[in-house]
Each structure stands twice: as structure tokens, then as C-alpha cells.
Specification:
Number of strands: 7
CATH topology of one domain: Beta Polymerase, domain 2
CATH superfamily of one domain: Beta Polymerase, domain 2
Radius of gyration: 17 Å
Length: 156
């Protein structure tokens, strides 16, 4: 919501949408800057390796890694995995954020941790989705983002 007396155009100036996502057709804005220090000296591949190692350590199930380079401006990689329960989903997410902060001084944006059904962790270069199996099956994100997948709305 715009602040009192402030024109909306001034507040939204930095949030101008740049293009549409080819998979979903939804508008995509410019990539958010890293929260880590500006002199961070790690690559998205190193960050991805740390994410995958953390998920493996915490027994995440059905881990899927999707390369988004050249397909989306939002990140270089997406990782989708499952935890057996809401408690495990929350624990996997908490430990991952702790490890990334420790290894890379990276503070990630997180959504959904309160419920533990679907937690999204945005590191800037790698986006991680941690699901309970039923929720993952319902949304089927990997089908939308896997190479060669085409998002087609259901025709009624």
C-alpha cells in the first residue's frame, strides 16, 4: 500500500516488471540483489552444492535440481524437495538457512515456515522449495519447470 501522501509511481519505481516468465506467462520483475555482502566471492554453482549437501544431511526426499539459466531471470537454479512431515519441512528449512548464513554470510528470504507445508527459501541465485509430499503432489512445480515442460492451463 502506498504511504500517506506518497505517489504510487514513486514507491513502485524499483518494482517495474521487466518481462514475462516463458513457462507460466506471469510477469517477472528484475532480480533481487543479494542480501550477502557485495564482495561475496562464491558462484551460484557453489551455493547450489551447499544447498544440495544440506538437504542430503537432513534427509530431504526426492530432491530435484532444475537449471534455470537462460530460462528465467529469477534465479540460476531451483531445487525442489520433500520432507516427511511439517516438522521435518521446517527443520530442513531452518538448517539450510543456518548453514548458508554460516558458509556464505547469506541471509535468505523465506516464506511459509510457520505452517511447514511448503517453505520457499530464496537465496538470490538458488530458489529452494521444501514441501510435504501431499502439497508437492498438488502443485507439481517440477512439471512446470523441468526442461521441455510446457505449462498449459486446463481447458474446460
Amino acid at each position: 500500500m502506498p504511504g500517506a501522501g506518497a505517489p504510487a509511481a514513486l514507491l513502485l519505481e524499483d518494482d517495474v516488471l521487466s518481462h514475462s516468465d516463458p513457462a507460466t506467462g506471469l510477469p517477472v520483475g528484475p532480480r533481487a540483489a543479494r542480501v550477502a555482502s557485495p564482495d561475496a566471492n562464491y558462484t551460484s554453482e557453489q551455493l547450489l552444492a551447499a544447498v544440495l549437501a544440506s538437504l542430503d544431511d537432513d534427509k530431504a526426499e526426492e530432491v530435484v535440481e532444475i537449471d534455470l539459466r537462460g530460462r528465467s531471470e529469477m534465479a540460476d537454479y531451483m531445487v525442489i524437495c520433500s520432507g516427511r512431515s511439517s516438522r521435518q519441512v521446517a527443520a530442513i528449512s531452518d538448517k539450510l538457512m543456518e548453514r548458508l548464513k554460516e558458509q556464505f554470510s547469506l541471509v535468505s528470504k523465506v516464506e511459509g515456515k510457520e505452517t511447514g507445508d511448503w517453505v520457499l527459501i530464496d537465496t538470490g541465485d538458488v530458489i529452494v522449495h521444501v514441501f510435504r509430499p501431499e502439497v508437492r503432489e498438488f502443485y507439481q512445480l517440477e512439471k512446470m519447470w523441468m526442461p521441455g515442460a510446457q505449462h498449459r492451463p486446463d481447458v474446460v
